[in-house]
Design brief:
The complex is a heterodimer of chains A (291) and B (272). With 291 residues, chain A is mainly α. Chain A has 12 helices and no strands. In chain A, helix 5 packs antiparallel against helix 10 (198-235). The longest helix of chain A has 38 residues, at 198-235. Chain B starts with 7 loop residues before the first strand and ends with a helix. The chains are: A mainly alpha (291), B alpha/beta (272).
């Protein structure tokens, strides 16, 4: 806790005016401080966009290089709007395909990741049995398996789901296992001392303690799954946002390509933010999360 | 018939550990024999590492005994049971549960009480330990002394035949420790449950107990048993009573014999 925060908690002295209190608290926080992070972040992003726009516009008039090398932010914004409004584009079909692949792979990975992680954390022998596979596959960039999955499952959604599944699975397994393993030995001793049956120990002590780890695994899984969608579709696909980017790239439609990339990045940020919110909700018992 | 049989009877208790690193058998407790009467408050003191906590864990059933016999109310102790409840040195509270939820955890683990009863009695127990108004606080928001009150309330709510306390105040600051000793006696005095209290603090042992047992250094054995004839209720000022100080000297001398190290051994142990 900083001095500023402590000062805010100091009791009002009776008969003390606001002015004397202000003088006493040398480091009373200015109101704008609360928005400092947001403010500075906005300024830096705006500056970046302005610089980008300046360079792109200058390039378009001076012709240093072909305009398609560097579309301006406004070009990208235009392309973004067109992406969603142009009836010939049919973006919803691509988003539907990618969304379906993502959801199927991610949900399957969550189910298996949590089950395997809990099993490996709780039963040491189960962990011994699966550790070699987990370590081997986790160390391998899973995208090298795409050609194999295409041979096995074809270029439709099945091979994508397989890549997404394998990508998201391991962070979930590893974090869940760490969460279960991380259970405070003192709490286990208390539970044993009171004669708690194993199922109760698991449900009331181990699992609640592992929740923050599990949610971290789910959050990390989002990034891996999104990478899986795009990369698998870049390699070979009929539909999907990755396929779209690939098409825009080979046809030199860079503004649309930028727009699609920003769309994916935005999706990732949004999903991660939502999961972070859920994580925080489970941490209300930590004093620093209470305001 | 003569005196009623003792509550806890320990005969020639041996506790051994297997040390995986040095691959050796380690004898922590070797031949402890003692009896604790019903309603008696007994404190065990001894040099650190003498196996007093190990003995307490054996009484709680957390670790098996390698030899001897251990009975509570005539029944052999095989594992943790409803007739004993431990107050731990580390509070061991579930950080995501409120004070109320933590106090209820003991009976919940035992599965002996309906939820409604547990809730009702837990609230009463929270009042008994002086935590009214903090039912909905989380452990991390409590001071060390308050956390130990929750720890105590959790054990008391299970209404055990015997209360086991493992240096519960060791981690508290000096003032809080004294207050908690006073509080413990106040709470204990309500129903005078048989209690076994482990501590390394000689004053604490004399202040709380009807009888202080001194353990030898490792492997632990009963060296000395001293009846504390100071009338109850005891205020904190009793600690400056000449009689109290005399007990303190007696016990301190007894422990000092155990930890006395010959000068040449000290020198031999010095890093070169």
């Amino acid at each position: 806790m900083s001095i500023k925060e402590i000062d805010r908690l100091l009791p009002e002295t009776r008969g003390e005016t606001t002015r004397t209190r202000d003088r006493r608290s040398v480091v009373r926080p200015k109101r704008w401080r609360r928005y400092e992070a947001l403010l500075v972040g906005t300024i830096s992003v705006t500056a970046f966009l302005a610089a980008w726009q300046g360079v792109a516009v200058a390039n378009q008039s001076a012709k240093w290089m072909p305009a398609l090398f560097l579309p301006s932010p406004t070009d990208t914004a235009d392309a973004f709007v067109k992406l969603f409004t142009d009836p010939r584009q049919n973006i919803w079909a691509d988003l539907g395909t990618s969304g379906f692949e993502f959801a199927t792979g991610y949900i399957a990975a969550s189910v298996f990741g949590l089950a395997l992680g809990i099993g490996m954390g709780w039963y040491t022998r189960f962990q011994y049995a699966l550790d070699p596979f987990v370590n081997f596959l986790y160390a391998t960039p899973r995208i090298v398996l795409i050609p194999l999955f295409i041979i096995w499952f074809g270029i439709d959604w099945q091979s994508k789901v397989a890549v997404i599944f394998l990508g998201a699975l391991f962070p979930m397994i590893i974090n869940t296992m760490a969460g279960v393993r991380n259970t405070d030995a003192a709490l286990l001793r208390v539970a044993r001392s009171f004669g708690a049956p194993e199922m109760l120990v698991f449900r009331r002590v181990v699992l609640p303690g592992a929740v923050p780890f599990i949610l971290t695994g789910l959050r990390l899984g989002v990034g891996h799954a999104l990478t899986g969608v795009v990369v698998a579709e870049l390699v070979a696909a009929r539909h999907g946002i990755g396929k779209l980017i690939s098409d825009f790239g080979v046809t030199f439609q860079t503004p649309k390509m930028f727009a699609a990339v920003i769309f994916i990045a935005g999706t990732g940020v949004l999903l991660t933010w939502a999961l972070q919110r859920i994580e925080n909700r489970f941490q209300t018992w930590r004093p620093q999360f209470k305001s | 018939m003569g005196a009623p049989p003792a509550k806890l009877v320990a005969r020639d208790i041996v506790v051994e550990y297997w040390l995986p690193r040095s691959e050796q058998l380690f004898t922590a407790v070797d031949g402890v024999t003692l009896e604790i009467e019903s309603g008696e408050f007994v404190a065990i003191v001894g040099p650190s590492g003498c196996g007093k906590t190990t003995f307490l864990n054996a009484v709680d059933g957390l670790i098996p005994i390698a030899g001897g016999s251990l009975t509570l109310d005539g029944a052999e102790i095989h594992g943790p049971g409803r007739d004993r409840a431990m107050v731990f040195q580390q509070p061991g509270l579930l950080p995501w549960r409120t004070v109320l939820g933590n106090v209820m955890f003991g009976v919940e683990a035992q599965g002996t009480m309906s939820k409604a009863d547990a809730l009702r009695l837990a609230k009463l127990q929270i009042e008994v330990v002086g935590l009214e108004g903090f039912e909905d606080a989380y452990p991390l928001e409590l001071s060390g002394g308050m956390q130990q009150r929750v720890n105590l309330a959790r054990a008391l709510l299970t209404d055990p035949e015997m209360l086991l306390l493992d240096e519960p105040f060791a981690a508290l600051d000096a003032q809080t420790r004294e207050m908690m000793q006073l509080e413990l006696l106040r709470i204990w005095n309500r129903d005078r449950k048989t209690a076994l209290f482990i501590t390394h603090d000689i004053k604490e042992a004399i202040y709380l107990a009807d009888r202080v047992i001194v353990f030898t250094k490792r492997p632990g054995r009963v060296k000395h048993s001293i009846e504390i004839e100071i009338p109850r209720p005891r205020g904190l000022r009793v600690k400056r009573d000449p009689k109290f100080v005399a007990y303190e000297d007696e016990i301190w001398d007894s422990i000092q014999e155990e930890i006395a190290v010959k000068p040449e051994r000290l020198l031999a142990g010095m890093p070169g």
